[in-house]
Design brief:
This protein is mainly α. The protein has 2 domains: 120 residues, DNA polymerase, domain 1 (Orthogonal Bundle); 204 residues, Intergrase catalytic core (hpI Integrase, Chain A, Orthogonal Bundle), CATH 1.10.443. 49% of the residues lie in helices and 5% in strands. The strands form 2 sheets. It has a 3-stranded antiparallel sheet with strand order 3-4-5. The protein has a two-stranded antiparallel ribbon with strand order 1-2. Helix 2 packs antiparallel against helix 3. The longest helix is centred in the middle third of the chain and has 20 residues. It holds the Pfam family Phage_integrase.
């Protein structure tokens, strides 16, 4: 049965059908419905998506991965399918028929669309897709992405901010025009908010991620037996990855952070459920995160700071100063190591020691911050 609805298309389709018959020595074409592990290209991608989402029949092989990771891996697969579609009917094409020529086509496409780091990630993602088919679904084939030349990725510089640059950005919030003229239609947007300077300081002195800093509350503050104060908050990033609700991180309250919290009203507000940053809120937390990020860049430019730094560089600056004092114990403070966090407010001794030491020794910029 032809799918064409007019004569010209029917002629073209019949010619294509004749070519397909000849290429298969006039043997019956395999059905579109997947049988066993003999998948079409589209069927294989569907199976991989189910596997990544934990919907696979292989319960013992399920992995906890983020939605962002799943979306990215499936996006790479779809891009590959789009390249294949230029030469094949991917609803009929078997995944086992993917050749080195097809990989070469995709390789050239990816070179034009990705920077080296993303390029390597894309190709590695497709290698993982075929590894899944071979190792989990037991499709009998060689991995066509097993060998390829990776792109060289130069080591990136970790830009931190110094005290003079940070002070100039704070001054710009008071003195530089808050109006940003956006591209395209020339939309004008007011970048000023009354919580910007406090927000920037809180980011710098706590080293937290956006979603952590914006939602810090006074009752997140606890004391160790040695009277060292720290924030105890849910590690949202690890919680999303591990899908557990009991993963916490601990932010030591250093002397300069303690001084700043007192300026914000620690003595009166301690143990309350009030937000530390801008408690009289009229914006959602997500909106505040976006505003803080975009406004930091706006006022950084206004301050004449030529470094291409963003709000995230405040966290990098904090971790750099922690590393200056703590060395190999830095991961216990930055929460890049998630081992040893115990239930019911108890800390692993190594983490507790690192937090207490950080609280006593670390000062961002090596001295008091305004």
């Amino acid at each position: 049965m032809l799918t064409a609805t007019n004569y010209e298309d029917a002629v073209a389709e019949s010619i294509e059908f004749e070519k397909e018959l000849k290429s298969n020595s006039y043997q019956t074409v395999k059905p579109k419905v997947d049988e066993g592990n003999d998948y079409s290209v589209l069927g294989a991608i569907v199976k991989y998506n189910q596997y990544l989402n934990g919907e696979s029949q292989y319960a013992h092989l399920r992995k906890d991965v983020t939605k962002g990771h799943i979306d990215e891996m499936i996006r790479f697969c779809r891009f590959f399918a789009k390249i294949l579609k230029q030469r094949y009917d991917i609803e009929r094409m078997r995944i086992t028929d993917v050749s080195q020529h097809d990989v070469a086509d995709f390789y050239l496409w990816a070179e034009d669309h990705y920077a080296p780091k993303s390029f390597n990630k894309c190709l590695a993602g497709l290698k993982g897709f075929f590894d899944f088919l071979i190792d989990v679904e037991e499709v009998e084939m060689k991995n066509p992405f097993r060998k390829y030349v990776r792109k060289y990725v130069p080591q990136s510089e970790i830009d931190t901010i110094n005290k003079d640059e940070f002070d100039s950005i704070l001054n710009a919030v008071d003195n530089y025009t808050p109006i940003s003229v956006l591209g395209g239609k020339g939309e004008r947007k007011n970048m000023y908010r009354p919580y910007l300077k406090d927000g920037f300081k809180l980011f710098l002195l706590s080293g937290g991620r956006r979603e952590e800093v914006v939602d810090l509350r006074w009752n997140n503050i606890f004391e160790s037996e040695n009277k060292i104060k720290f924030f105890r908050i849910k590690n949202l990033k690890v919680t999303r990855i591990m899908k557990r609700e009991t993963v916490y991180k601990y932010i030591p309250i250093t002397d300069d952070l303690s001084d700043f919290l007192k300026e914000l009203g620690y003595d009166e507000k301690r143990n309350t459920d009030e937000y530390i940053l801008f408690p009289q809120r009229y914006e959602k937390s997500k909106t505040m995160m976006d505003v803080l990020s975009k406004s930091f860049t706006h006022y950084r430019i206004g301050a004449g700071v030529e470094k291409e730094i963003t709000l995230s560089n405040l966290r990098k600056t904090y971790i750099s100063w922690v590393n200056f004092e703590m060395g190999i114990d830095t991961p216990y403070v930055s929460s890049h190591s998630t081992n040893g966090v115990l239930e019911k407010f108890y800390l692993d001794p190594k983490i507790l020691t690192a937090i207490e030491t950080t609280a006593l020794k670390v000062r961002v910029f090596g001295n008091k911050t305004p």
